[in-house]
């Protein structure tokens, strides 16, 4: 089946009906085909933007092939470390990749199919390590550096890792892992990656390992955040990454200039950071400023110092900018565009961001690890302004369905159901978990996202909430994200999360965890009343607890299961 858009004819809807499954006729500019129930991308890739089909093309080879011309690669800056000021040109980056790849293969013995676990915060060396691993046909499995020893051991064991590449400060977590360790900087009794780059492969990048890699081979195994259940290994192929990077080239090129500067504080072990910063931006010759880990003041300082134009962010960062950035005193006038993804951005927060930063474009998007980080984005700021709660339209080579959970029917615009997507970017499956794979990807290749969504008449996606996180109250479905968005509009609420609490009479009730502003004496009754005045009775928050910080994943997703466990422990303690 072709994934390119196809024209069709239908009546134009008379109005939006967002909260009901009684639909107006679909608009012909939505990309929806009433005969198949499929939404198709409204964007055609240009001839020079088609996804390469060369069989023996791997991720590293593709990325390096897109580097700036050798005449300018020696002076063109690829990366800047914000904490040290160290810079890396595209020519240096290429030599580092090929030299480390040669060293991994000849000195360490890494072979095609071997899994290499990477445990490090963002660093100027991180992209080199990723691309070197992939270029020898090995499989990258990046890990969160805040994980515990047992969590890291579990990932290493599940993925079958043969080697760990780690930052020195992570070594104590690896003492009992039983796998060889390579550190990213000089450390006693260990060979460092920088030493390896210096002494292996001739040092000039002229020696490239000869290994046969196909697009269908596994490039990386990423572990989902496990916000609603156990973390699973997501198998992503070279084809998946090449498809996403091709789409990225189209989207970033349409919005940015070659001399733009991007700021990276998104963790590179996450699909958002990996696909965008460790791989994709290099195909456009972009300069990236790196922050090892997120620090709000360092972010603002870096924007001012390096005249940053673009920030791919997450909703907690948007919230922090709204609450604090205008009073920080930093010069943010260079900033032109802020993208956001990985977690839902409320319409209210988006509107407030635009009010405080009217010169900055805000571009929400949607993606997930299983789709290699991509699915939708806004093609223009004007479209995003008109739909502050939306996530944009389907990216090229993506198609989608909205499926009714009860009937299995594919729904037209404004119908709410589970989002299913199909694309060359969709994962191969879950590692060693056929049951989960078959439950997520059907026999026709459709990926069930688990998100409750709808498309409007112009093909813009709206994410309501995670289906598994919907609160069932007296037979009604309550979306935590909707209540959280309302809570965040309160001037004394710095952050909030809503969870389900079991209730004998109604099944479940919504409970809010709230982070109060400094000095605030906001009470539970005031919070309950504030929300009740803005929602239907069945959506009301019934209980409130105040907390110092909302637990979140590195990508900014609320870890509701931790709050649910916390609430359960509090109840047990009272017995």
UniProtKB/TrEMBL annotation:
Protein keywords: ATP-binding, Ligase, Membrane, Nucleotide-binding, Transmembrane, Transmembrane helix
Bilayer-spanning residue ranges: 269-290
Residue span, AMP-binding enzyme C-terminal domain: 482-557
Segments of this protein annotated with the region Disordered: 1-32
Sequence ranges assigned to domain AMP-dependent synthetase/ligase in this UniProt record: 75-431
InterPro entries for the chain: AMP-bd_C (IPR025110), AMP-bd_C_sf (IPR045851), AMP-binding_CS (IPR020845), AMP-dep_synth/lig_dom (IPR000873), ANL_N_sf (IPR042099)
Presence of the UniProt keyword Transmembrane helix in the record: yes
Protein name: 4-coumarate--CoA ligase
Organism of derivation: Linum trigynum
């Amino acid at each position: 089946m072709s994934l390119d858009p196809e024209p069709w004819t239908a009546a134009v809807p008379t109005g939006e009906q967002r909260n009901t499954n009684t639909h107006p006729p679909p608009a012909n500019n939505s990309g929806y085909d009433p005969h198949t129930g499929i939404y198709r991308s409204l964007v055609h890739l240009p001839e020079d933007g088609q996804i390469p089909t060369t069989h023996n093309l791997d991720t590293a080879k593709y990325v390096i092939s897109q580097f700036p011309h050798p005449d300018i690669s020696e002076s063109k800056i690829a990366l800047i470390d914000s904490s040290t000021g160290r810079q890396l040109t595209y020519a240096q980056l290429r030599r580092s990749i090929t030299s480390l790849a040669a060293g991994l293969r000849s000195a360490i013995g890494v072979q095609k199919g071997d899994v290499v676990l990477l445990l490090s915060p963002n660093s100027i060396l991180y992209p080199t390590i990723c691309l070197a691993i992939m270029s020898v046909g090995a499989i990258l499995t990046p890990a969160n550096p805040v994980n515990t020893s047992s969590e890291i051991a579990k990932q290493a064991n599940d993925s079958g890792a043969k080697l760990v590449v780690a930052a020195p400060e992570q070594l104590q977590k690896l003492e009992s892992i039983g796998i060889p360790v390579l550190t990213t900087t000089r450390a006693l009794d260990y060979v460092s990656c920088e030493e390896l780059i210096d002494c292996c492969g001739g040092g000039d990048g002229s020696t490239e390992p000869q290994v046969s890699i196909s697009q269908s081979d596994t490039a990386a195994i990423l572990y989902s955040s496990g916000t609603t259940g156990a973390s699973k290994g997501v198998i992503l192929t070279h084809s998946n990454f090449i498809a996403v990077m091709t789409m990225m080239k189209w989207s970033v090129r349409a919005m940015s200039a070659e001399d733009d500067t991007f700021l990276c504080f998104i963790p590179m072990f996450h699909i958002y950071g990996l696909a965008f910063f460790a791989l994709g931006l290099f195909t456009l010759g972009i300069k990236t400023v790196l922050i090892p880990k997120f620090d709000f003041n360092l972010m603002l300082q870096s924007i001012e110092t390096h005249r940053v134009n673009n920030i791919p962010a997450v909703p907690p960062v948007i919230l922090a900018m709204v609450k604090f950035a205008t009073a920080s005193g930093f010069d943010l006038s260079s900033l032109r565009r802020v993208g956001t993804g990985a977690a839902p951005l409320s319409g209210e927060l988006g509107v407030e961001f635009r009010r405080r930063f009217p010169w900055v474009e805000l571009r929400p998007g949607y993606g997930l690890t299983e789709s290699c980080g991509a699915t939708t984005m806004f093609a223009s700021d004007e479209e995003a302004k008109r739909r502050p709660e939306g996530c944009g339209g389907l990216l090229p080579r993506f198609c989608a369905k909205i499926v009714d959970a009860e009937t299995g029917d594919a729904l037209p615009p404004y119908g709410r159901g589970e989002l299913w997507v199909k694309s060359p970017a969709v994962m191969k499956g879950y590692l060693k978990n056929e049951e989960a794979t078959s439950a997520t990807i059907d026999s026709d290749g459709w990926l069930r996202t688990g998100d409750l969504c709808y498309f409007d008449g112009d093909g813009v996606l709206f994410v309501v909430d995670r289906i598994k996180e919907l609160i069932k109250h007296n037979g009604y479905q309550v979306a935590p994200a909707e209540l959280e968005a309302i809570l965040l509009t309160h001037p004394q609420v710095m952050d909030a999360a809503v969870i389900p609490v079991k209730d004998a009479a109604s099944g479940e009730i919504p409970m809010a965890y709230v982070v109060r502003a400094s000095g605030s004496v906001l009470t539970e009754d005031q919070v309950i009343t504030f929300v009740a005045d803005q929602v239907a009775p069945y959506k009301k928050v019934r209980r409130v607890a105040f907390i110092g910080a909302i637990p979140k994943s590195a990508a900014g997703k609320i870890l509701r299961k931790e709050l649910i466990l916390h609430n359960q422990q509090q109840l047990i303690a009272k017995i």
